[in-house]
Specification:
alpha+beta, three-stranded antiparallel β-sheet, 3 helices, globular
Length: 70
């Protein structure tokens, strides 16, 4: 998502829009510890660097699957 850009804190609605996933899927990523949520003054936020890591992990998995199919 970002390359060498500054870290940003995102709200759950931001993640839903960026990933084009419904709230239950975002919650599943949190519950399965694939994405860490931060509690900041009682509000849930997500580190943009964590989102980059999550996307990178899924890209690597997709690449491995493409290699194993051929």
């Amino acid at each position: 998502m970002q390359t060498q850009q500054e870290r940003r804190l995102l709200q759950k609605a931001d993640l839903m829009a960026l990933l084009q996933l419904p709230e239950p899927k975002i919650q599943w990523l949190i519950d399965t510890k694939q994405l860490r949520a931060l509690l900041l003054c009682g509000e849930v936020r997500f580190d943009s660097k964590e989102l980059d890591r999550l996307i990178s992990t899924y890209q690597q998995i997709a690449e491995r699957k493409d290699l194993s199919v051929q």
